[in-house]
Specification:
The chain folds into 3 domains: 138 residues, Response regulator (Rossmann fold), CATH 3.40.50.2300; 103 residues, Beta-Lactamase, CATH 3.30.450.20; 91 residues. It has 13 helices and 12 strands. Strands 2-1-3-4-5 form a 5-stranded parallel beta sheet, with helices on both faces. It is elongated and about 105 Å long. The C terminus is likely disordered.
Amino acid sequence: MDIKRTNVLLVEDDPAVCRLIRRILSKAGQNFRCTLQTASTVSNAIDQLRKRRFDNVLLDLGLSGSNGLETVDRIRTSSPDVPIIVLTATTDKDVQVEAIKRGADDYLITPKAFCESLGEHIQYVIQRKKAIEALRHGCEYFRSIVENAPCAIVCISPQGRILEFNACAQDFWKQEREKVTGKSFLQTCVERGDRFNVYVELRKALAGESVKRASTTITNADGRSDSLLWDFSPMRTDGASISGVIAIARESRAATVRIGNRLSAVKLTSKPDFNDTVETIMNSLAAILKKIEKINSRADPATLRQLADNMCSVNCQNRQIPSRKAVAMERLVLSLITSNPTKPDNIANHRA
């Protein structure tokens, strides 16, 4: 079996210690083959790290001409990914903890470090470093998916508190993640009238029961209301126990429409072709209304009704909108552009 050689850099200014560690690693065992390079100063170590790849650095904190823990800072800055094992004679726990905080992956107290298991310990630290890096990259990958998702994603604790709040959710509710983390999900994301129904579905999700899609209303800063569709799924940490709920919200295509401060109060249909037609008409109406307001703030209702009749007839003839829905659209037009939305004769005999 071909054993891959491990490249180790020993940063040590005592030649006797260098010889001792070289001898220990040469007899580490059949499963460990080591190529050991030495550096007597931090500057020399950094120079070697720039020229070749090392699997591990053994770093003595007691180098002459160095300032203890600052050597960890300099090595870590030079090589962010290489595992570092600190060799220290001190038993001060504060120094050991500070070395870890500054980027060391482990520490060994001398002379106990000079034992036959040194090679195994180096292997352990290298493998642990790889596992941590793989986990970190995996977390970053899945976080990027959540952050770039075209829908609001909110993770909720069993107590109903917000654990995660992605970029789309921040855009929906105009609040930063840091400010909503730990706050009540219902009070932050759901308006008062919708809270009970959402609460019921959340409890079902936490119990592992089947959950229905929930619909809520969200009021924007400009006073416009939109509809959100919610899906709730339980978060399972170990494949069995439920540790929270993942809530996903999307904008509903059947949202109510506002022009200015006047509500259309018409819930049209979820059919895509009809919605596209309605969207085109409503955009045109908005432009027409602006022009009417500029020309005359008190437009002749009879003229406007005639325009509405003509538009309704043309749309029905072209089969863009069924007659029953065209009547509803005509009523909507009149409610928006006349101060006295009296039903014209041609729709008085129809039923919407």
